Amino acid sequence: MDVEERVRREYLAGRMHQAAALARSVLASQPDRAEVWRLLGRVARHLGDAAASDAAFERAAVLLPRQMPAPHRVTRERFEALVEEARVALRDPEAAVRRGMRRQGRDDSTAAERLVAVRELPTSGEIEAGVSPDCRWRRQGDRLVVYQWNVEHMAGSDQQIVRQLMRGFVSR
User: b/e per residue, 157-169, with b = 16+ CB within 10 A?
Assistant: First the structure.
């Protein structure tokens, strides 16, 4: 099994300390492994080391800028404003169709009314229960739980965050 795959498996199993140690040992001898840098960025976020996470994501972005752009980080307040922007866009059928978030004739306007809980990341308990550490959103009863940092990992701008959020609202 490739060492990158071993790091990924440890990460997905929620064994963050083991994943971090393995990633660092790989990068000590192979510093050009962009995907391992990106995995280390994810792992470091889950371990609460935002500075190491951002540095690892930046390193991955330098190595493969088109495939792995650096995440777009925003404050919690800005993120919550972007959640509201996504709601407003979904309420406007023409705007939602233009953004590719709604097919012509499909009404997802009620999706914009879902209760939303914003959290930074899935907890270790959620990961142990089967939630992916990369989960961007999930349903919890009537509520949509949105994991801010994982949405940011997939976005390079405020607009891309809004697009990700719109997807979360309309996903089944």
Answer: eeebbbbbbbbbb
* pLDDT tens track for 33-56: 999 999 999 999 999 999 999 999
pTM: 0.84
Q: Which two tokens stand for residue 10?
A: 């440890």
CB within 8 Å of 61: residues ≥ 6 apart: 68, 69, 70
Q: Residues 86-127: pLDDT tens digits?
A: 988 887 766 665 555 555 455 556 666 778 899 999 999 999
Domains of the chain: 3-63 (1.25.40.10), 76-170 (3.30.2010)
